[in-house]
Write a structure and sequence with these properties.
- By secondary structure, the protein is mainly alpha-helical.
- The chain is built from 7 helices and no strands.
- It starts with a helix and ends with a helix.
């Protein structure tokens, strides 16, 4: 519920900043309220199920999973609504920002990914934690994933493709947390390392290539 409230606050502030139309703001608000409503129902279902069946029961699992699925469906609907409304405001601005950095460079992309990989191995060897391909600080998977996402963003300079690439990088990074291979700190550091090095390398290729 806290995450939903934070997301709702960010979206509403962004909508006000972008000066969306009253109808668009109303649709965003209704979408957000629907997600919060679904979360409240999910919480109520979980409480009732725990009260009626304190121990494990297959039907209790079905009830909880179904209620959680309802929240997921509501969130997906809100995400679609948010994209349809905010995309025409945000994507052009994001496209202009991407156009400021780098030019398409196959060599620069390969070099940046290699440098990121070497940097991850060096940092892990210096800290003495993990192996090149497993555990330790920073997360190599997150670093390479965000390196690729950054390279895709700067080479294509297409806002939608950039958002999709970053979403994939986030999913890769999140999987390292779910598998308990890395901590949040290790994943964040890996993400920043990968994106930062790639941004610098491709910018250098723009000015000196």
């Amino acid at each position: 519920m806290r995450n939903h409230f934070v997301s709702a606050l960010v979206v509403l502030l962004l909508a006000l900043f972008l000066r969306v139309t009253p109808i668009e703001f109303a649709l965003l608000s209704l979408s957000i309220l629907f997600v919060l409503f679904a979360e409240l129902i999910n919480t109520a279902v979980e409480a009732v199920v725990d009260l009626a069946s304190p121990g494990y029961h297959p039907l209790a699992k079905v009830a909880k999973d179904t209620a959680a699925g309802g929240v997921l469906v509501a969130a997906m609907g809100a995400a679609i609504m948010g994209y349809l409304i905010l995309a025409r405001y945000v994507l052009p601005l994001y496209g202009k920002a991407l156009a400021m950095f780098g030019t398409p460079s196959d060599l620069g992309t390969i070099v940046s990914i290699l440098i990121v990989t070497i940097a991850v191995i060096m940092v892990k060897s210096l800290t003495g934690r993990g192996t090149p391909l497993h555990g330790g600080i920073p997360s190599g998977h997150a670093a390479v994933a965000f390196s690729i996402a950054t390279a895709v963003s700067l080479n294509t300079r297409d806002p939608l493709i950039s958002v999709l690439a970053i979403a994939l990088a986030v999913m890769v990074s999140h999987s390292r947390l779910l598998m308990r291979i890395h901590t949040m700190r290790e994943v964040v550091l890996g993400s920043l390392l990968g994106a930062g090095i790639t941004l610098v390398v491709l910018s250098l290729f723009k000015y000196f290539g």
